[in-house]
Amino acid sequence: MAGDTNTVLVADNVPAVVTNLQSWLAEDYQVETTTDGDEALSLVEDADAALVGCNLRTAAGAVVAAEIEHRATAQTMAILCDAHEVDPLPAVGDSLEKPVESAPLLKTVDRLVRRARYEELLAECTTLAAERGAVESRGDAESNEEYETLQRRLNEVFTELDELVETFDGEDFRAAFATCEFGTPSQPQSASEHP
User: Fold this and answer.
1) pLDDT confidence of 188, banded at 50, 70, 90?
2) What per-residue confidence (pLDDT) applies to 142?
3) Which of 9-13, 30-34, 91-95, 155-159 has the least mean pLDDT?
4) By C-alpha distance, which of 31, 33, 96, 40 is closest to 63?
């Protein structure tokens, strides 16, 4: 699902890591980079995917990854951690161990971009369905060109969602449904954690 329209944020406190990851991603994605925590927080909203070092902090000392975890974009973030950092913050599903290798990086970014597209399509689906409902409530849906246009686009969105979901695995589904509680991200439980 790589493409020039997808933006990836690479943010880490080590400039060499940022440069290396950017070089691998630049061919397929628009890449925004920073080694500044405050700048990372300002750039993440416009990114389709984010790779964030677990040690990157804001000027006030906040852990950037933890700040992003509390946003709706948390499912499109992967944490970059060194092997000795056993308990990285925050506890999100996707992480990459430094030094990061090209193949796992590209696979992870593709996964994150697909999740971002899924979220976009769900939001569009909700809007279209509400607009279609408003037309239906007026009682003129049968002869209404606006209704037909909405229905056609809604069908296109459903088709794209179906195709996208076919590429999902268990991690993708856990990430997609981790934000079901009123838009607040939460860490999904594994099956072994249930009583």
Assistant:
1) very low
2) 78
3) 91-95
4) 40
Amino acid at 89: L
What distances in angstroms separate CA 21 from CA 25, 34, 53, 72, 80, one per listed residue? Answer: 6, 12, 12, 24, 11
Q: Which of 106, 118, 111 is nearest to 163 (CA)?
A: 118
| Closest C-alpha among 28, 23, 22, 20 to residue 9 | 22
Helix 102-138 with 15-25: angle, nearest 10 deg: 70
Burial 97-120 (b: 16+ CB within 10 A, else e): ebebeeeebbebbbbbbbbbbbbe
In the 8-state DSSP scheme, what is residue 78?
Answer: E
Per the CB < 8 A criterion, the answer to whether 44 and 73 are in contact is yes
* Distance (Å) of CA 61 to CA 8, 35, 49, 110, 127: 24, 14, 23, 30, 38
pLDDT more than 90, % of the chain: 56
**pTM for the model:** 0.77
Closest CA to 65 of 51, 54, 76, 75: 54
Residues 6+ apart with CB under 8 A from 193: none
> What's residue 26's pLDDT?
95
pLDDT at 95: 85
Task: Spell out the residues 6+ positions from residue 112 whose beta carbon is closer than 8 angstroms to its own.
Answer: 8, 48, 49, 50, 75, 76, 77, 78, 94
The residue-averaged pLDDT of 99-121 equals 92
